[in-house]
Design brief:
The complex is a heterodimer. By secondary structure, chain A is an alpha/beta fold. Chain A is built from twelve helices and ten strands. The longest helix of chain A is centred in the middle third of the chain and has 17 residues. The relative contact order of chain A is 0.12. Chain B is elongated, with a radius of gyration of 22 Å. The chains are: A alpha/beta, B mainly alpha.
Chain lengths: ~280, ~210
């Protein structure tokens, strides 16, 4: 009997293909066949956890469940959330030394500077930005700043709101900043309430235009190491969503292995001393 | 000054979203004077299955590059026969930018373009046949090599064959060897064909 049950929970190549296509359509995330083990393991876990007998019944439930709760749960499991504080720090240096000085110099109103981080993951990136602005950007005394951090994974957003981190996660934070912004609790580090309150965390599916159309008028977008999980067409759609989300003259920072020039011709390449970023042309609408 | 939190997303400019988002209104907005409204309409039309033809018509006259990009993305994402037919029609355009955009979009649609590839490769215009070979360059489809072999066996135009040979140098296998040798015979007096075919044969041999 036991053998029968476990046999029925094997994910066949056809099942994998069916799931892969569906998940891609819903999230823009494309799993290559080399990710079979990663995907199969999570699917089998969810088939068991939801009391389904096999992939077929689970997949039917996934597709037709009105609340979409299981789809969200599975999405949370399928997304990779590996990051740490001050990752690719040269871009934060670029933000405070080059991007923001240029943006504030060109501003004709006193509206807040708006920064969007996507994917948020567990919050290391938006909190790193907040620390950088407080410590290394003089403009923080003259400008209001809004930091909005979004992710498709609701579980990781909750973790980000709580703001508790491992020693590995804070390994690049200087002792001075660690002392100023964190409290050690056992083996972990709790970020201070001032920083927690400085970032708004929201759930966004970048592949869903109904989600992204609410995000407009950003001065800077950080989208690092996400588009590598997308296929060409989904990358292009994401680039077009960011174009609408940015103000004219606004900039987008991608991960070090990513290039907007290979995705879309809409952006101007800006070579600042610290980093290459991509700018929505000032004359764009 | 400080960090501030805005609990509600920045309101969308009402002027730019002045129409309802149903299909007839979205189609009407493709002609809106504001490029942002046209761009958003082109994106939202993904949910309107009958919109391929008007999207292609708009693409032919659209001056704003950001709107053109979104129209092409929507057509690629839809990928239905009307979209493919519209993109094929663009290959005949005098506008080089439009031809290239259509070509790039078609490269993303291997399964949809495959059924019409033979027709494209037999188009009376040699330029269109060359574009078709260019599409094959990035079309991830198992038939690519056999289509190229058909071209070098049958096409009378030296430039069409030359473009095909260049590509066979990258994707060709043992199956291309004999056809390449026959091509050299057919175009004995064309130095470029001799050079390109020899190069392709050498690469096939090395692989």
């Amino acid at each position: 009997m036991k053998t029968d049950v476990s046999k029925s929970k094997i994910i066949t190549a056809e099942d994998f293909e069916k799931f892969r296509e569906y998940f891609y359509r819903k999230t823009g995330i494309c799993f290559e066949p080399t990710k079979r083990y990663f995907v199969d393991k999570r699917l089998i876990d969810r088939i068991e956890a939801t009391g389904n007998h096999d992939f077929r019944s689970y997949f039917t439930m996934l597709r037709f469940e009105p609340s979409g709760e299981e789809m969200q749960h599975l999405t949370n499991l399928m997304t990779v959330n590996e990051t740490y504080f001050l990752r690719e720090e040269y871009q934060f240096q670029c933000l405070v030394d080059s991007i923001l000085p240029e943006i504030t110099a060109a501003k004709t109103d006193r509206k807040p500077i708006r920064i969007w981080c996507i994917p948020s993951s567990s919050g290391e990136e938006p909190y790193s930005i907040a620390m950088y602005l407080l410590e290394l950007w003089g403009g923080i005394n003259s400008w209001d700043v809004e930091i909005i951090s979004s992710d498709i994974d609701t579980g990781i957003l909750q973790k980000a709101r709580i703001g508790r981190y491992s020693a590995r996660s804070i390994q690049h934070v200087s002792p001075n900043w660690l002392n100023k912004y964190f409290t050690r609790i056992g083996d972990e580090y709790q970020i201070c309430d001032d920083l927690r309150n400085s970032v708004e965390f929201t759930r966004v599916n970048l592949s869903e235009s109904a989600d992204t159309r609410l995000y407009r008028n950003f001065d800077v977008i950080f989208c690092r190491n996400l588009l590598i999980y997308f296929d060409d067409l989904s990358r292009k759609e994401a680039a077009e969503s960011f174009y609408d989300a940015l103000k004219p003259g606004g900039c987008i920072c991608l991960g070090h292995s990513e290039s907007m020039s290979r995705i879309s011709s809409l952006y101007k390449v800006r070579k600042f001393p610290e980093a290459i970023v991509y700018q929505k042309p000032l004359e764009a609408r | 000054m400080a960090f501030i939190k805005n609990q509600t997303p920045e309101p969308i400019n009402q002027e730019e979203r002045k129409h309802e988002r149903d299909c007839p209104n979205l189609l009407a907005q493709l002609s809106d004077p504001n490029p942002t409204a046209r761009r958003w309409a082109a994106r939202d039309l993904i949910n309107c299955p009958q919109s391929a033809v008007p999207l292609v018509e708009r693409l032919k006259i659209e001056p704003d590059v950001s709107v053109r990009e979104v129209i092409l993305t929507t057509l690629t994402r839809m990928g239905d026969p009307d979209c493919v037919a519209g993109l094929v029609a663009c290959l005949n355009s005098e506008d080089a930018a439009l031809r290239n955009e259509a070509l790039e979009a078609m490269k993303q649609l291997p399964d949809e373009v495959a059924p019409i590839m033979r027709t494209l490769l037999a188009d009376p215009k040699s330029d269109v046949r060359i574009f078709a070979v260019n599409i094959l360059e990035s079309l991830r489809h198992p038939e690519v090599e056999s289509w190229l072999i058909e071209v070098i066996e049958n096409d009378q135009h030296v430039n069409v064959c030359g473009t095909s040979v260049d590509l066979l140098g990258e994707v060709g296998t043992e199956a291309s060897r004999k056809p390449l040798e026959r091509l050299k015979e057919r175009f004995k007096d064309e130095p470029y064909i001799q050079f390109a075919a020899d190069l392709a044969l050498r690469r096939i041999y090395e692989n």
